[in-house]
Fold this sequence. Notes:
Number of strands: 2
Oligomer: single chain
Shape: globular
Radius of gyration: 19 Å
Distance between the termini: 17 Å
Structural class: mainly alpha
Amino acid sequence: xxxxxxxxxxxxxxxxxxxxxxxxxxxxxxxxxxxxxxxxxxxxxxxxxxxxxxxxxxxxxxxxxxxxxxxxxxxxxxxxxxxxxxxxxxxxxxxxxxxxxxxxxxxxxxxxxxxxxxxxxxxxxxxxxxxxxxxxxxxxxxxxxxxxxxxxxxxxxxxxxxxxxxxxxxxxxxxxxxxxxxxxxxxxxxxxxxxxxxxxxxxxxxxxxxxxxxxxxxxxxxxxxxxxxxxxxxxxxxxxxxxxxxxxxxxxxxxxxxxxxxxxxxxxxxxxxxxxxxxxxxxxxxxxxxxxxxxxxxxxxxxxxxxxx
Length: 309
């Protein structure tokens, strides 16, 4: 669906046309893999920012900067005017989920290694993938991915129980993000991105009471503010836009199983940026996840709309 607008009596659809063209030419898996890298690259930089800004303050900066980018780029309020009430409820739900998910994720990575939080986050999408694994090959792929997630997680509640509490809360919210994200992506990449921008504005409102106070030190120091904006762009603009472009063309089961790559991505970025070196068992888990993703195959024909909702 093209997203057109009228300005000064002349039809203009530069954003929607370009996104639709790009989304049609680039394989959806490319968008996913790029999203997987940025999904943890931004949070790795956020961990470094925790030394200067509170955890909730960094979370607020991430959401606020992403909301500002979407507002300037997409003007999302124009695309949601006249939406049915049911779709508005989905949009508001997604916004609240995005806000809470970011807060829980940042609270978790402030207490646990990035690879551990990424592994726990992976459990939810695997549960979603199980509902779409209807062939023997996909069932085997799910089994490998689930075993890899189990090895990677290695949950030990001693030491940082609050960190694990936030990590599992983030896992549940991430499941909701995948489900709701597919619902707003069903009309195509451009329309989904506009609605994502609107949801990000709602997320900003949702987290304002708990995060704005912690972000004040960064608002007084330009270099901290610039770092916070960079975290927001890397964490919430690039990966979420790529997610929408991928979700618009991939069934939810396929997208959910591909998300099994996220623990491996978290491990690699944790090593490179944060010097958090995984154990031998964690590397085995990464290999199992990679085998599961390699085995997985989509069904022939266009994506099943029932699976994508």
